[in-house]
Amino acid sequence: MNILLIAPAAGRWRRIGRKRFFNGRTFRFSMLSLLTVAALSPKRSRVTIVDEQAEDIPEGPFDLVGITAMTAVAPRAYELCAHFRRLGIPVVMGGYHATLNRDEALQHADAVVCGPAYGAWERVCADVEAGRLERTYYGDPGARPPVHLPRELLAKEQYVTVSSTFATLGCTNRCKFCSINRFHGGQRHVRPVADVAAELKAIPEEFFVFVDDNLNQDRAYALELFRAMAPLGKRWVTQVSVEVAEDDEMLAAMRDAGCIGVFIGLETFNNENLHAQDKSFNNPARYRAAVAKFHGFGMYVESGVIVGFDGDDAGVFRNTLRMLEWIRIDAIQLAVLTPLPGTELYESMRPRIIDHNWEHYDFRHAVFEPKRMTAVELQAGADWLIRKFYSPWRILRRAPRWITMPGGLRRFLYPLALNLAYLGRVIHFRIRGYDPAKHAAAESAEGTLRV
After folding, report:
1. Which among 30, 95, 414, 445 could bridge 164 via Cys, Cβ 3.0 to 4.6 Å?
2. Contact 22/425 with Cβ under 8 angstroms?
């Protein structure tokens, strides 16, 4: 069987990998879902993986097409479904959007895999060969994933690393804006430590990424994993909860296992917002001390930041920039609050949604009317904040702490490369914006003068 697996790209991201500069390579590190599907395919199959950020869709012929899609690329995924179905080729969709919006996806695809692919894709392939494809397949998240993935199917030069992997699936936190809990049915599953260690030992690259949603949520498991990894001599980054900063034993185990950076979802500096989104376990008063702790163990900190909560007004952007600098965050992934279809947030915000184009649900567009500012102000402020944070002089101002962090000069290169990649995105996409609070103050002053 000849199988084509596609990661679609929409709008300005399609073919961006072909550009000489600012080609998004730093942000391409995980084709893990499609590599897993490839590993689950019949041994006698020929599998092709296409990342539309860097490659065109080949002509074929193919016996089966699999497409994974987040909400922002769902329209492009549906275009591809129509194209291949016209050719008489069965198309199966999976991933977050199809799982949480199955009925919509089934209007475009022949079948949908809900949840993880384990235990489902094998049945899909068998049913296609037997000519009896069903409409819906449910994966078994508790199944044992393959230890080795066919990373040779990827064009290594297009990625910062093709050695991404995972140790755990899911997260038991129930943050209203997040789709992870719903995708995994509120469950969390772990791989055998021996399997993860064996996979990492076989990977020739020194640097890799753990794509886990919350690697340290099971403390005993995480400590066992890190101790098994320590002799391997790898360098890696991952996503953890800010609470890890209060656990010196965990931080030491991470450092000894090769961790050089963490991604933490701080989200906001407003306790009201955190409580409203069921994320009150975050405490902004402890952010600065937490970041200092990570730095002390030789790990840079990238933070997830969200603007547009109901507690945010036009001053949130200036205040967020000030706080990010005060707590000494090394990089940010800024998101405009986005009510993803299928989440609790989407249902609660449905009356306020003003943009139903899924392509705009990429965390960079204001698709709803905020409570304490306008959608235009939310968009402008988010753009202004990311441009300001990644201004060249602010990057230079952060650089000395990367040089002096434990771990030597080598550690300096990772946060520097990440900052320059984000600066490249600002330049390439011409992100500008303005500070809505300053704009409003200027308009008010002008109105006063007229009076």
Report:
1. 30
2. yes
Give me the sign of the Cα torsion angle 243, 245, 246, 249: positive
Give the pLDDT of residue 281.
Answer: 54
User: Cα-flanking dihedrals φ and ψ of residue 422, to 5°?
Assistant: -65, -40
Q: Which domains does the chain have, with CATH numbers?
A: 2-138 (3.40.50), 161-437 (3.80.30.20)
User: Per-residue pLDDT tens for 311-334?
Assistant: 999 999 999 999 999 999 999 999
Cβ proximity of 144 and 83 under 8 Å? no
CA 423-426-429 angle, 5° bins: 140
295's tokens:
């730095």
- Model confidence, pTM: 0.90
φ, ψ for residue 241 (rounded to 5)? -85, 150
Q: Amino acid letter at 298?
A: G
**For range 52-78, the mean pLDDT:** 94
Specify the DSSP class assigned to residue 57. P
pLDDT in tens, 363-413: 999 999 999 999 999 999 999 999 999 999 999 999 999 999 998 777 888
CA 269 vs. chain centroid, Å, equals 21
